[in-house]
Amino acid sequence: MDLGIAGKRAIVCASSKGLGRGVAEKLAEAGAIVTINGRNRETLKVTAHDIQKQTKSEVQIVVADVTTVEGREALLEAEPNPDILVTNAGGPPPGLWSDWAEDDWLNALNASMLTPILLMKGVLPGMITRKWGRVINITSASVKSPIPELGLSNASRSGLTGFVAGTARQVAKHGVIINNLLPGSHETDRTTSFLKRTAAERNISIDEARLEAHARNPTGRFGTSEEFGAAAAFLCSQYAGFIVGQNLMLDGGAFTSTLG
């Protein structure tokens, strides 16, 4: 299927590995010119080389922390006129509500709510002028199915979801489409860290923790970055113009709901 985005310019945040890399790969595969971002130059260079080799598409790198003003400015300076924006950042740490101080909340809100909002504010005017744009925010399945120990994430990402709900409906008439992708457990470093934590708490091996987690999912496994990237690429495509302000769960059916 031709997604109709060959030659479109894309920014994919936090894309040196994991889900962000999966999205960058699929956009490049569809012919988009991709700017990838991360905080480690060597990892970014390897990722860019791999994507260019696999897809023959143009890839540029921006070494920056997008949760900072300087990082966002560097990203938008490198790619000032993106047709596609995929926001993404590492999630807040797990813990107990009584442990989180004001700074913990401010950091979570900055990374998981304000950063994507400010990036959108930076690119939406140009998209509106050009009468075409796609924005995908990588959030979390915890927005719909809260995870007790991820209160910082539950709250901050829910704030972003509320912002998108209104904004997506304001800009859709200009051909600018905004949606959120809500990943459940995928084969990523973050999932591995949770498995290590579970294994340590229960005095079991990481492999045992992984098997138990797989068994709790209707698919019997975790998702892959390739699957996630393909879903994101479709939402960035010419065919997604009537999908507005949605929160698409990619969790293997873990969240049980008839209408949610």
Task: Spell out the key features of this protein.
260 residues; alpha/beta; Rossmann fold; 2 domains; 8 helices; 7 strands; globular
Q: Secondary-structure map with pairings?
A:
Blueprint: E1 9-12, H1 18-29, E2 33-38, H2 41-55, E3 59-63, H3 69-78, E4 84-87, H4 102-130, E5 133-138, H5 151-171, E6 176-183, H6 189-202, H7 206-215, H8 225-235, E7 247-250
Parallel strand pairs: 1-2, 1-4, 2-3, 4-5, 5-6, 6-7
Helix pairs in contact: 1-2, 1-8, 4-5, 6-7
Question: How would you describe the overall organization of this protein?
Answer:
The structure is a single chain. The protein has 260 residues and is α/β, with parallel strands linked by helices. It has two domains: 9-184 and 227-248, Rossmann fold (3-Layer(aba) Sandwich), CATH 3.40.50.720; 185-222, no CATH class. Helix content is 47%, strand content 14%. The chain contains eight helices and seven strands, in the order βαβαβαβαβαβαααβ. The chain has helices at 18-29, 41-55, 69-78, 102-130, 151-171, 189-202, 206-215, 225-235, and strands at residues 9-12, 33-38, 59-63, 84-87, 133-138, 176-183, 247-250. Strands 3-2-1-4-5-6-7 form a seven-stranded parallel beta sheet, sandwiched between helices. Helix 2 links the parallel strand 2 and strand 3. Helix 1 packs parallel to helix 2, helix 1 (18-29) packs across helix 8 and helix 4 packs parallel to helix 5 (151-171). The radius of gyration is 18 Å and the shape is globular.
